[in-house]
Amino acid sequence: MIVSVASGKGGTGKTTVAASLATIWDRPLVAVDLDVEEPNLHLFLRPNLEESEAAHMEVPVVDASKCTFCGACSELCQFKAICAMGKLILTFPEMCHGCGGCIALCPEKALSPGTRELGEITRGRAGSIEFLMGRLRVGEAMSPPLMRLVKAKLDEMTAEGDWDAIIDAPPGVSCPAVNAVIDSDLILLVTEPTPFGFYDFRLAWEAFSPLGKPMGAVVNRAGIGTDDLYRFCRDKGLPILTEIPFDRAIAEAYAHGRVIAEVSPQLKETFVSLRDEIRDLAERSRPREAANA
Amino acid sequence: MRKIAITSEGPGLDDRVDPRFGRTAGFVIVDLETMETRYIDNGRSQILAQGAGIQAAQLIVQAGAECLLTGYVGPKAFDALTAAGIQIVQNLDGMTVREALERFKSGSVRVADGPNREGGK
């Protein structure tokens, strides 16, 4: 089972929840940091980082001697990464989304694949937990291509044996967030019951609902804010799997880079029961998925 | 030089210069020999999330312009325009298209040697 930990608003506790869940997980697990713009799961799980490799994507390179300036590539590209103007063809590699369409389309075979460095993919191990992280190159604007490579690595790692994965997703509801959750079996939405937290939670629920995956909420900093969030979850039939109290001891532990499931026996129990709730929810959702298939 | 392109908020010489290049409303193309003008709408570039400047550069190259009068040009558009051999005059915002044209004709403008706006959206 792949569980992604997402949120609309940033700073609601995704990494806190992902790290704690990983720590109490009782099956073979890969903990994955897909928040590649600012990965921080490693600060809590403190894995030994064993290997790191550069990740690249394919961008077009022009052989000007073969190009007839027909402009087919330029018309196809929605991102203006390749541009034909009269007897001139220009590429803007940083605009390229790596679809490969221009290379496939070129009637003169004047385009070949070159590379743009996206960042790096790092593997490690924290106790019994396998750890995997993507880190975007400073200056690189597109995270989904790197995220796809990290996910391919995850597929490789879990191809043999019976592995679970917990994905720490980036915040928001745009392409990176959707990319992080789209291959998971279940989405945890971490939020806080403040007006900001609720507003972005609702956006996340709207963005991820069409994916048809089981979703559950984790209410962090419970005890502050309003009851809008609770009412919304009740109306939409979205289960609240656990609540984490608004507590100074938790903030202090977090600030020291500690995993909060290890702060107290009660908090540990909170995450153990969250793990069981996740499995229950996945189990309950199975017949519905089959019916939709 | 025969044709110049001026970023414009509207189709005529008395419309304001649109300060933006990539996301300009359109271009007034002036034929310096006949002083005929024509207008090219830039709506298709305005709706692009990214790459508006590159597409706008394509448009004025296709229109046969050899010089551009505008307010600001970003780095990618600047590269595309320069590669196409188009002279760029910046900082002509806050006036009408006619005034920008007069300035150009009087020779009191400077051809840019670099972009005057950061790239992005």
Report on the architecture of this protein.
The complex is a heterodimer of chains A (293) and B (121). Chain A is an alpha/beta fold and 293 residues long. Chain A has 10 helices and 11 strands. A 9-stranded mixed β-sheet of chain A has the order 3-6-7-2-8-1-9-10-11, sandwiched between helices. In chain A, strand 4 and strand 5 (89-91) form a beta hairpin. In chain A, helix 1 (14-24) packs across helix 10. The two termini of chain A are 18 Å apart. The model of chain A has no long low-confidence stretch (mean pLDDT 95). Chain B is α/β, with parallel strands linked by helices. Helix content of chain B is 28%, strand content 19%. Chain B contains 4 helices and 5 strands; from the N terminus they run E-E-E-H-H-E-H-E-H. Chain B has helices at residues 43-46, 52-62, 75-83, 97-106, and strands at residues 3-8, 26-31, 37-41, 67-69, 87-89. A 5-stranded mixed β-sheet of chain B has the order 3-2-1-4-5, sandwiched between helices. In chain B, helix 2 runs parallel beside helix 3 (75-83). Chain A binds chain B through residues 74, 79-81, 83-86, 88, 90, 92, 95, and chain B through 48, 50-52, 54-55, 57-58, 61-62, 76, 79-80, 83-84.
Shape, per Cα inertia axes of chain A: elongated
Helical stretch tally of chain A: 10
Give me the secondary-structure category of chain A: alpha/beta
Strand content of chain B: 15-25%
Low-confidence stretches of chain B: none
Strand order of the largest sheet of chain A: 3-6-7-2-8-1-9-10-11
Unreliably modeled segments of chain A: none
What oligomerization state is this entry in? Answer: heterodimer
